[in-house]
C-alpha cells in the first residue's frame, strides 16, 4: 500500500528542538513535584530534600544522556505545540490528573485528526484511531508489545501474571486457561449471576421504599452498587469465594485505589521508578499489598483443600490458575488480581454507562421495557430469569453492544514497536522501539464507519446487514482483539444483559445530575463519574429510581 504523506503542521514548526529539550526538562521538574513526590507525605524532611536534589540531578543527566532523543520521530504528523504542555494548555491536565488521559487524547484527536503526535512524558508517541491501524496494533503481537512504562507498572503490581508474560509463554498460558474457563460453562454460572442481580435489586428496592410510592427516590451512587454486584459475580464464579456486601465494598475500594496509583505510575514513568527509593511508589506498593492480602485469604483456603473437598465442588478459574502456576502462591495471587480487578471493573462500569445512556435516551428505556413485557408476559418480578430467557432478549443485547461501542472499557491501548513497521491503515511509519497508541474510542466513533456515531442507537445491531454487525476491522474492539483480547468477555456479555434485564423489569431510572456533568475517568476501565462544576469526578453516577 502506498505510504500516506503528511504535510508538516504549523504547530510542529513552532515546536523546534530547543523547545523539545525545554519540555523534557520541564517534565522532569514538574514530574518531580507532582508525580514522583506525590507520595512523600509520610517521608522525613531529609528524604524529601533528597527527592528534590534527585530531580535536579535528573535534569542534568537527561539533558546529557538523551539530547539526541528529543527530536520527534513523527515530525510529519500534526500535534500540540509546546505551549499546550504548559499550565492552561490542553495537554497539561493529563499530568496533573492522569484520570483525564482519555478526555485529553480525545480532545486532541478532534483538533489534529485520526493520526497525530504527542509527547507522553519524555517519549514521543503516535496516536491513531484509524480502524485498520487499531486492528493491526492489537492483533499483530509479533510487531507490537506493551511499552516499558506499562511493563514496569505491571511488574510492580502483578509480577508473573498474564500481562507480564512474554509472547510465547502468554499464548501457552491463555490456551490452558481458555480450555478450563470458557463459554461452555456459562449456563452453570448463570445461577451465581442471578444471585448477584437479585441482591442488587433488593438493595435498590430498599432505597425505593424510603420514599412515598410513585415518587423518585433520593439520589444514590449506582456505580458503587454495580461494583459490589460485579465483584460478587467474579469472585464467586471464577474463584468460588463468597463474601458479604461490606467485604466486597471494601475490596472494591481497595482496587479503586490501586488503579489510581497504577495510572500515576504509568504517566510518571520513568521518574517514579527512578525515585522509588525515596517513596515515590510507596502508595502503589501499599495499595497492591492490600489487594494481594485480600485475595490470598481465599487462595490459601483453596490450596489447603483435601482431595475430597475438591471433588465435591465444581472446578473454576482458580483451579486452572493454581494448576498453571504449580501452586506458587505469589504467581497465583498476581493472576487472580488481574482477573478480579479487570473483570469486575469492566462489567460494572459498562453497566453504569448503559444506565446513563438509557436515562439520556428515554425511548431506548421504553423499548427495553416493551421487549421484556412482550417476551416475558407472565413472568413475575419475584421469578428469576432463566439462561434461555436472557438469550432471547435481543434488543437489550443490542443496548449492551451499543454501550460498549460508545464507552469501550478499553478505549486505548499503548504498544511499542518491536521493529520498524508501517501502519496498514494510515501508512504511518513507526520506528523500532517507539510507542504507538491505538485509540479504539476514536475508531468506535469513526464517521467513515458509523452513521451519526455520537447517537446512542441500539438499532445498529442485531441483523446481518446492519452497520454494527458488518463493521470494518478495528472499528469495534471493546475487549481488544487477537492474542491479548479479554479472555472473560463471554462472561461480561451475559452478565451485563442479565443484570440490566433484572433492573429494568423492576425500576425506571433517572439521572440525578446534568448529563453534561458526567465524564469518563481513565483507570483499568473507563469509569463514569459525575461532579458539580469545578469539583473532582469522584462521586460515581448519581441516579434516582421509581418502581414500575
Automatic annotation (TrEMBL):
Its cofactor is heme. The chain crosses the membrane at residues 23-42, 49-67. It comes from the Eukaryota. Keywords: Heme, Iron, Membrane, Metal-binding, Monooxygenase, Oxidoreductase, Transmembrane, Transmembrane helix. GO terms for molecular function: heme binding; iron ion binding; monooxygenase activity; oxidoreductase activity, acting on paired donors, with incorporation or reduction of molecular oxygen. Pfam families: p450 (PF00067). SUPFAM superfamilies: Cytochrome P450 (SSF48264). This is Cytochrome P450 family 808G-CYP808G1. It comes from Chondrus crispus (Carrageen Irish moss).
Amino acid at each position: 500500500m502506498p505510504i500516506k504523506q503528511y504535510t508538516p503542521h504549523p504547530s510542529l514548526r513552532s515546536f523546534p528542538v530547543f523547545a523539545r529539550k525545554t519540555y523534557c526538562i520541564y517534565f522532569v521538574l514538574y514530574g518531580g513535584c507532582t508525580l514522583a513526590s506525590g507520595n512523600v507525605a509520610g517521608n522525613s524532611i531529609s528524604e524529601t530534600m533528597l527527592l528534590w536534589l534527585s530531580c535536579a540531578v535528573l535534569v542534568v543527566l537527561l539533558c546529557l544522556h538523551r539530547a539526541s532523543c528529543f527530536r520527534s520521530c513523527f515530525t510529519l504528523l500534526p500535534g500540540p505545540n509546546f505551549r499546550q504542555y504548559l499550565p492552561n494548555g490542553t495537554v497539561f491536565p493529563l499530568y496533573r490528573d492522569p484520570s483525564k488521559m482519555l478526555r485529553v487524547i480525545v480532545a486532541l484527536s478532534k483538533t489534529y485528526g485520526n493520526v497525530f503526535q504527542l509527547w507522553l512524558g519524555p517519549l514521543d508517541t503516535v496516536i491513531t484511531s484509524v480502524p485498520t491501524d487499531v486492528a493491526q496494533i492489537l492483533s499483530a503481537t509479533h510487531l507490537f508489545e506493551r511499552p516499558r512504562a506499562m511493563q514496569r507498572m505491571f511488574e510492580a503490581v502483578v509480577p508473573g501474571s498474564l500481562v507480564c508474560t512474554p509472547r510465547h509463554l502468554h499464548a501457552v498460558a491463555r490456551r490452558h486457561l481458555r480450555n478450563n474457563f470458557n463459554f461452555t460453562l456459562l449456563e452453570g454460572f448463570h445461577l451465581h449471576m442471578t444471585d448477584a442481580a437479585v441482591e442488587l435489586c433488593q438493595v435498590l428496592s430498599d432505597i425505593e421504599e424510603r420514599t412515598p410510592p410513585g415518587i423518585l427516590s433520593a439520589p444514590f451512587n449506582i456505580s458503587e452498587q454495580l461494583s459490589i454486584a460485579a465483584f460478587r459475580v467474579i469472585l464467586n464464579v471464577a474463584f468460588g469465594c463468597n463474601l458479604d456486601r461490606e467485604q466486597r465494598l471494601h475490596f472494591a475500594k481497595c482496587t479503586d485505589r490501586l488503579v489510581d496509583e497504577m495510572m500515576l505510575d504509568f504517566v510518571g514513568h520513568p521518574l517514579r521508578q527512578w525515585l522509588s527509593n525515596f517513596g515515590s511508589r510507596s502508595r502503589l506498593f501499599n495499595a497492591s499489598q492490600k489487594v494481594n492480602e485480600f485475595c490470598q485469604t481465599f487462595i490459601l483456603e483453596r490450596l489447603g483443600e483435601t482431595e475430597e473437598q475438591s471433588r465435591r465442588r465444581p472446578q473454576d478459574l482458580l483451579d486452572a490458575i493454581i494448576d498453571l502456576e504449580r501452586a506458587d502462591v505469589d504467581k497465583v495471587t498476581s493472576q487472580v488480581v488481574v482477573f478480579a480487578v479487570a473483570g469486575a471493573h469492566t462489567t460494572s462500569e459498562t453497566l453504569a454507562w448503559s444506565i446513563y445512556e438509557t436515562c439520556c435516551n428515554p425511548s431506548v428505556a421504553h423499548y427495553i421495557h416493551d421487549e421484556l413485557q412482550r417476551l416475558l408476559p407472565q413472568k413475575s418480578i419475584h421469578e428469576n430469569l432463566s439462561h434461555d430467557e436472557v438469550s432471547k432478549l435481543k434488543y437489550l443485547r443490542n443496548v449492551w453492544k451499543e454501550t460498549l461501542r460508545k464507552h469501550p472499557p478499553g478505549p486505548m491501548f499503548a504498544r511499542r514497536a518491536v521493529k520498524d513497521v508501517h501502519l496498514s491503515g494510515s501508512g504511518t511509519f513507526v520506528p523500532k522501539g517507539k510507542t504507538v497508541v491505538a485509540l479504539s474510542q476514536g475508531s468506535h466513533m469513526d464517521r467513515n464507519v458509523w452513521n451519526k456515531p455520537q447517537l446512542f442507537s441500539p438499532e445498529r445491531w442485531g441483523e446481518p446487514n446492519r452497520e454494527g454487525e458488518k463493521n470494518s476491522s478495528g472499528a469495534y474492539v471493546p475487549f481488544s482483539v487477537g492474542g491479548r483480547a479479554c479472555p472473560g468477555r463471554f462472561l461480561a456479555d451475559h452478565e451485563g444483559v442479565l443484570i440490566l434485564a433484572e433492573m429494568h423489569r423492576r425500576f425506571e431510572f433517572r439521572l440525578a445530575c446534568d448529563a453534561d456533568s458526567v465524564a469518563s475517568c481513565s483507570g483499568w476501565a473507563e469509569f463514569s463519574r459525575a461532579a458539580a462544576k469545578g469539583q473532582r469526578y469522584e462521586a460515581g453516577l448519581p441516579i434516582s429510581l421509581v418502581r414500575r
